[in-house]
Amino acid sequence: MHNRFQAYLVNAMQALKQNQFQLAAQNFDQLTALIPKNPKLYKPAIVAYLNSGQLDKARVLLPDYLTLYPSDADLHNVYGDLAKKQGDHQTAKKHFLKAIAVAPAIAAFQYNLALMHYELAEYDTAARLLNQITEKIPGHLNSWLLLIKVQLKLKTPQQALNHLETLADLHPDAAARADVVKLSILTSIQLQDSEQALQWIRNMSKSALTQGDIEDFCLGFLDGKQPVNALKALNFGLEIFPNALQLLNLNTSLRHELGEDEPLSCWQNITDWSLPLVVGFSQTLLLLSKPEDALNNLQKFENRYQSETDYCVILAQVYLALSRYQDVVAIAQSNKTLSVVAPFQEYLVKALIALGENPQALATCEKLLQENSNDQYIRALYASCLRINDRGEYQQWYDYQHLVLKTKIQVPDGYASVDEFNQCLEKELRALHVMNESPLSQSVTGGGTQTPGYLFNNKADVIQSLKNTLEKSWRNAIDNIEFSQLAKSNPLHQGFTGNLQWLTAWSIQNRTGGFHLPHIHSKGLFSAVYYVKIPEQVAQSDEAESSGYLGFGKPDLPVDLEYDHKVKPVAGELVIFPSFFWHGTLPFTDDSERIVVAFDLNVKE
To answer: In the chain, how many domains are there?
Structure first.
C-alpha cells in the first residue's frame, strides 16, 4: 500500500506542476481511496479538482481544509467563488468576508463580494462595498469599472460620469479601453447626451464591438425614451453584423412600433441565409400577417433545409396560419422524429383540433404534458383540449373561483387617495408611451401601445411607489390561496417552492377599439394587471355588454370557443391569475383610453 501511495502521490504532484489537472485529479482520487482523510493532500487536491472542472469534489474538501487552516485567505476566496457559482450565496458571502478579514488589503477579495451583490441585483450594497474599495485601494481598476456599472443600474448617471472622470485621472491609459468607452456611451445615453453617445458608437473600432454591446446601447436609448436613437444604434450594428438575428428582430420590431413603412428593410442585407435566419425571417413575416410570404421564403430553401427539425417546425407554423391543417398532419406522418419535438407537437394538436380530431388532439397533448409538465403554454393547450372534449377536469384546471384574484391596492405613502395616485401615475406612464404601434410579438391589436423594457427600471417616485404597493397586494393575495384545496389534477395543487419575484412589467395604453387577443404568458407562474385609467363606457358596462372586460378561457386555437369567465376592470384594482390561463380583453368603443400596468411573477431561482 505504501508503494502505491507514493506512486500516486509522485504522479499527482508531477501532473500538477505540468498543469495536467485531469491526470492529477485521477491520481488524487486514488490517493483518497487509499487514505480518505489526509490533510496534507487537501490543498493540492483542491487545486487539481478546481482546474479539472470537478467542482463538487473540491467543495467536499474545502471545509475540512479551511477548518485546519482558517487563515488561508486565498482558499476562503476560492470557496466563496465556488459557492457563488453553485448558487449558495450565503456560504459564498461567509467565505468572502473571511478572506477579507484575513487579508483586508487585497482588493480582489472585496471586489468578488461586491460582484456577487451586483449579480444578485443588490446594487445599493454593491455600491457601498465598491465605494469602500475605491477609497482605500484607488488603484484597483476593476472596482472602478464595476462601480460605474452599478451607478448605471441605479440610474445615477451623474455619479457614473464623476467616477469616469476620476478613473481617467487615476488611470490615464484606461480612457481608450473599449470597456471604458462602452461605459462612457451608456452614461451619455442616460444623461440624454445622445449625439455624444452616437458619435462614440460610430468612432469605436468595429472589432471592439459585440452584438451584445449594440443591444445594450439600443435598450439604453429605449429606456431613456429615445426610440429613434435606438434605431440608429441598431442600424449601425447591422452594418457590422448583417446576419445577427437578434439585431434583425429588434430592428424590425422597432421600425414597426415607430410606424415606419418598410419594417423589413434590414433583412435585405443578409449575406448568409443560415437556417436560424430563414426561420427567424419566416416568423417575422407571420407576425406581420404575411403567411404567404413566409411560405414563399421557406420554399426558397426547401432543398437545403427540408430535413432539418427547425425547418419542419416553422413550416408547420406557416401551414397553420394558412389553415392548411392536413399538411401539418402530413409532416408528422412523414417524419416520426418530430414526435419528441414539443413545438411541432403543439402545432399538431392545433391542426387536429381544427380538423375535428378532438380525442386524438387530447391524447397527443396528454403525452406532450407528461414530458413538459411545467410548460405554461402546454398547460393552456391541455386545458383547452379538456374543454373541447367536454371533460370535467377543465373546471378543475381553470378554477376561476380560487385562482382569479381581484384586490384593491393600498394607498401609497404620500397620496391622499388611490384616485390621486392614479392621476399622477397616468401622467408618468403617458410620457413612457413613446411608440406609435404595439410590439410585433404582443397581443395588443386594434389600437394600442406598450412601454419598452422593464417598467420598474424607471426610478420615478410614482413608478417605484406603484411597484411597492403592487408587491404588497400580490404577495398578500397569493399567500392566501389554499393550494391544497384545489383539485389534485390542477397543476398548482401542490403550490410552488421558492420565493415569488418580479419577472417583468410593462404598461399598455389601448385606444378606442383596442383590445388583446387571447394569449397566455409562457414565462410566468402568475400574471396580473393593474387598472390605472378606465374609459367611462367600460366603467358603466354590465356583463351582458362586457365592453373592455378581461376575459378568460377563450383560446388562441382554430375552434369556436368563447370566454367563459369575465372580470370587470375597475381603476385602482389588481387582478391576478395563473399565467397558463388563456386571457384577453373585449373591445370598447368609447372615445377614450384604457391604461394598465401588467406584470409576470415567477419563482426565484
So the answer is: 2
d(C-alpha 380, C-alpha 385), whole Å: 9
- Residue 546 forms beta bridges with which residues? none
Q: Cα–Cα distance between 290 and 119 in angstroms, integer?
A: 41
- What's the Cα-to-Cα distance from 306 to each of 313, 342, 385, 413, 483, rounded to whole Å? 10, 18, 30, 60, 46
Range of the domain at 567: 401-603
User: What pLDDT, in 10s, does the model give residues 108-157?
Assistant: 999 999 999 999 999 999 999 999 999 999 999 999 999 999 999 999 99
The structure's pTM equals 0.86
CATH number at residue 227: 1.25.40
Tell me the CA end-to-end span of the chain in Å, nearest whole number: 47
Cα–Cα distance, 476 to 402 (Å, whole number): 14
Q: What is the CATH number of the domain that holds 514?
A: 2.60.120.620
Under DSSP, is residue 409 helix (H, G, I), strand (E, B) or coil?
coil
DSSP reduced 3-state for 530: strand
Those residues whose C-beta lies under 8 Å from the C-beta of residue 479, and which sit 6 or more positions away, are none
Closest CA to 477 of 582, 552, 374, 573: 573
Sequence-distant (6+) residues with CB within 8 A of 210 are none
Last residue of a domain, one of 270, 293, 321: 270
